[in-house]
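Hi P.,

Sorry for the delay on this. The queue was packed all week, but I finally got your sequence through. Input first:
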Amino acid sequence: MTEPLRIGICGFGVAGGALAVLLARVGHRVTLLERAPQVGPVGAGFLLQPSGQKILAQLGLFDAVARRSARIERLEAFTETGRQLTDLRYGNAGPGLCAYGVQRGVLFSSLHETAVAAGVTVTLAAEIADLDETADHVQVCDVTGRSFGPFDLVIGTDGSRSRLRDWLNPGNGRRREYTHGALWGSGHLDTPHDALHQVARSVRQLLGLLPIGEGRVAFFWGLRRDEVDALQKRGYARFREEVAALCPQAIPVVDELGNFERLSFAGYLHALPRRVHSGRVVLAGDAAHAMSPHLGQGANLALLDAECLARQLAQLPLSDALARYAAERRPHSRYLSVLSQVLSPFFQSESRLLGWGRDLALPLLCAQPWMRRQMELSVAGLKQGFFHHL
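Then the structure:
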C-alpha cells in the first residue's frame, strides 16, 4: 500500500460505506460524514446484481446479506392486458447467475457495523456545505459552520443531488430532473416469487413488486411528480382500486401499508458530470453518475466504484490513482447512463407513441438470441460498454 492517508468520505450510502470499510482495513484514517442524524437506508429495496455480489464478497458481507435476501432468477414485465413484454433470465448470462432482492436496511446495518469495527470514525448530522482545497489538504465545512479535516483526500458519496458534484462542476448543465418518480414502500407477501415483476399501463404508470427476503416485497408505483397530490386527494381507497386493476397480486402489500403516510415518493434525476475528480476530491456512486432506477444498477455501480477507487489508491500515488479510477470507471458508467436515458422514456414519459413502440418492439427484441443476450448481460451488470462485457 502507498502511504496511509487522512480520508474524509461525505455520505453514508452504499459507495460511502463500502469505501470506508475497504480503505480503513488497509490502514487509511477514515472519517465518514453523514448528513442524517442517524445512519439508515433510503428506499425499500434494491437488486444486488452479479457484478455487485463480487464486491460484497470481497467485503466479507455477501453471505450474511444473501441469507436475508430473496434470490431473483428473472426480470419480467407485462402490459396492463397481461401481454408479456420481457422475461430476462440471469442464468442465460452465465451458469448459476442470479440477482438478490435486498432490503436496504440489511445492507446498511452490515456496512455500518463493519465500518465501525474497522476503525472508521462516523460523524452524523454533518451536511456538507463547502470545501476548501489547497495543494496539500482539503478542509470540509458543514451547514452549521463546523469544520472537518484537514484531509489528504475527500470522497463525495453524497448521492444523486451531490453538493460535491456541483462544487467540482460549477455551472455544469449535465443534470436533469425527470418529470416522473415513484411511490415506494414494503410489506409482506406470502406468494413465493423469484422475479422482479413489473406491469406497465402505457407510459403513464409503472407498478413493480420486488421480493426482498424474509417474506417481504418492495412495492413501487410510478407516476409524475405533479400527480402525487391529486392521487392523495382521491384517497387511499381509490388508489387501492387502481392498483387492483393493474396488478391484483399487489393488494396484500397495499392493504398492509394502509395509508399514504407509509409510502414515500422518490423523484428521478440524471447526472453524468464532466469532472469526477480534482487534485484531492473525487466522486463515487450516485454523486458520479445519477440515473433513473429502471435498469436496477445504482447500488452495484456504487460497489464497483468503491472497489476500483480503493484498489487504485493501494497501487498508485494519489493523483495517478484518481485519474486511473476515473478512466477505468468511465466506460461502464457512461454506457449505463446512456442506456438509462434512452430506455426510461419508454416506461415513464408523456408519449403514448413510445408506449406503443415499446409494446411492439420489446417482445420482438427478446425473441432475437443475440439481442436478448445483450439485454441479459446488461441487467446483470456484466456488460461494461457497447462492445465489451466481462
